[in-house]
Amino acid sequence: MAQFDVHRNTGKHRDDIPYVLAVQSAIFDVYRRRVVVPLVRKTALAAIADHRFNPSFKIERVEVVLHPLEIVSIPNDKLGEFVKSLANEGDRITDALDVMLSRVWG
Fold first, then answer.
1. Any alpha helices (H) in the chain, and if so which ranges?
2. Integer Cα distance of 72 and 69 in angstroms
3. Which of 32, 37, 69, 72 is the most buried (most CB within 10 A)?
4. Between 1.10.3430.10, 2.30.30.110, 3.50.50.60, 3.40.30.10, what CATH number should domain 5-105 receive?
5. 81: left (phi > 0), else alpha (psi -120 to 50), else beta?
6. 8 Å CB contact between 39 and 6
């Protein structure tokens, strides 16, 4: 499991949230949990107010949106199968998380 790997969502909301994105650094790989951010179907959202905070991606022909406000930690054994890596989108993902966590905004 690597940072920015996309996995299938095995949870009960997988229809609207088909994937989760692992975001934690590899230095925490020894832990039994992974911090993930949901990738929500674009069609399940009314609108996207800030494309920097909610970047869009296409995974297996499905348009999804990163939803940082729903960040969670899940046990490794609950993480679904690996789908693809978004490592090439790491800057956009980190930027979205920075918008949420930065003290710059107040």
1. 90-101
2. 9
3. 37
4. 2.30.30.110
5. beta
6. yes
Distance CA 34, CA 28 (A): 8
| pLDDT, tens only, 18-52 | 999 999 998 998 999 999 999 999 999 888 888 99
Domain boundaries, the chain: 5-105
Calpha distance 106→63 (Å, rounded): 31
pTM of this prediction exceeds 0.90: yes
Instruction: Fill in the amino acid letter for 94.
Output: T
- C-alpha 70/C-alpha 84 separation (Å) is 21
